[in-house]
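To: structure desk
From: M.T.
Subject: fold request, one chain
Message: Could you run this one when you get a chance? Sequence is below, nothing fancy, just the single chain.
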Amino acid sequence: MSLTVRVPTQLRTLTGGAGEVEVEGASVGEALKALDAAHPGLGDRLFDEAGGLRRFVNVFLADEDVRFLDGLATPITAGQTLSIVPAVAGG
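Reply: Done. Structure tokens follow.
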């Protein structure tokens, strides 16, 4: 399935400045791996050593946090949008 991935400003240096990238994948994990294959270095920012999403990276599929769905195994359908949102902390 083809979907659009919205890339946050902090990671756009890895996508050549693109804020949105089209990728293929049947699941969120496949789509993010395809994103890393097309734009090397993104995977290091998104995935931890065990292959899961880093704690400070939030991923939303159609406005739903994938951690509350099936995580990286969450299936996607054509035309959906995947948004990468870095966690923000401060006081």
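Reply (cont.): DSSP finds two helices and five strands in the chain. Let me know if you need anything else for the meeting.
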